[in-house]
Amino acid sequence: MTTEVGRPHHHVTFAVLTAGIVTYSLLQSLVTPVLPTIQSELHTGRSTVTWVLTAYLLSASIFTPIMGRAGDLIGKKRVFVAALIALSLGALLAALATDVTVLIIARAIQGIGGGVLPLAFGIVRDEFPREKVSGAVGAIASLTAAGGAAGIVLAGPIVGALGYPWLFWLPMILTAASAVAAHFLLPESPGRSPGRIGLLPAVLMSGWLVALLVAVGRAPDRGWGSGEVIVLLVVAVGVALAWIRVEKRSARPLIDMAMMRQPAVWTNNLIALLVGVAMYALFAFVPVFVQTPTSAGYGFGASVTQSGLMVLPQPITMFLAGMITGGLSRRIGERAVVMLGLLVSLASVALLTFARSEEWELYLATTIMGAGFGFAFSAMSSLIVGAVPPAQTGVASGMNANIRTVGGSIGTALMAGVVTADLRPDGLPEEAGYTNGFGMLGVTLVMAAFAVLLVPRSRGVSVAECRPPGTATTAMANQAE
């Protein structure tokens, strides 16, 4: 199926992108529920094993916008394939690792693959008919979130049946196959953005992200008022200000600050930050709540596998919601779909806050939660892609994903602090900690809903108008009109 000689049909392109995105999103979360197993197998401490997550998070936060910018400069297909190769090599090294240091390095290599998401958005915008872009972006965004949630569900059965190295062997096989398919089947980008990636802006951006995320990661254990955390936060703010100043003065910046100030961009980034706070904290702490022994007076004493089954509705409804977001957005607008998603998500948080003593209540809450975040996540991604010219799609969506990740780090740290603020003699949190924590996430979603009201009603730059002339997609878009 092709649209021009040698140029694949957009359905083929979508299938290849989907394969890469799903495996990337699985690698994000597969290790989260089984950190205690990895800690035991590699004979390391709790503080050390958490770097298996932190190293990936730091690397992805740094490389996601850089890889997006690189795709705009040298070609989205080339960089997409490179990102999948990095994921494969990192997964291979992790599967073979017999030492926690090697595993941490492997996870940092995997973080380079965070660029697949903005690159996929850019390829969709380049190659799809205009009327198909919103739906495809929404579907890919929902697959990313649903894949991350599915990783939490699948981790227990994989480890129980095959052992924890298969958390990396299976994704490695899939990412390697996806890289080969992408190399042979994806079309190369029809246009390029002028410029280069400056070393100083990249170093400064990496510096403030590392300082911020390390501070947020250590705050639950050390306390937000500890000297170490305060120093790291001050360094993060100082380096971030220096980075912004350098970017403003650069003729060809890594991140265009004028673009970041556009109302459609900064409002969506604000929503992404707040949604990240709530969504990732819920993904992390709902399974923990379910696994709490019943002797605590709450929880269900579930195993890792059982807790995965209890949250299984979440990735299913998230995927389904993302698949219908495109059509819904065409009828009521993407801004309205984001608002709908946030309100539905808020309903799930209300259930978790006030009604979580029965299993059916948890199933209902996770079902609603998946649908809500599926709508919000997908429509938000479409909004940011439609808000900028095609030459800035990669870097804009990369920064949006990055900001959402930073929000997730902050949300997880805040939730950990609230939940563990008052511990029982047996070391388990009091149930009130979960009530307060879920309530805090509900307030975050209310703030995100108010932020949606600030998003301009305009759909921004027309995808068809900005696409370089002469491409297969332009012809298809013109025919559709």
From TrEMBL:
Pfam families for the chain: MFS_1
Record has Transferase as a keyword: no
Transmembrane domains' residue ranges: 12-36, 48-67, 79-98, 104-124, 136-160, 166-186, 198-217, 223-244, 265-290, 310-329, 336-356, 362-389, 401-421, 433-455
Domain of life: Bacteria
Cellular-component GO terms for this entry: plasma membrane
Keywords: Membrane, Transmembrane, Transmembrane helix, Transport
UniProt key word ATP-binding: no
Matches recorded under CDD domains: MFS_MMR_MDR_like
Single GO molecular function: transmembrane transporter activity
Membrane topology note: Multi-pass membrane protein
InterPro entries, A to Z: MFS, MFS_dom, MFS_trans_sf
Compartments, record wording: Cell membrane
SUPFAM superfamilies reported for this sequence: MFS general substrate transporter
Protein name: Drug resistance transporter, EmrB/QacA subfamily
Organism the protein comes from: Streptosporangium subroseum
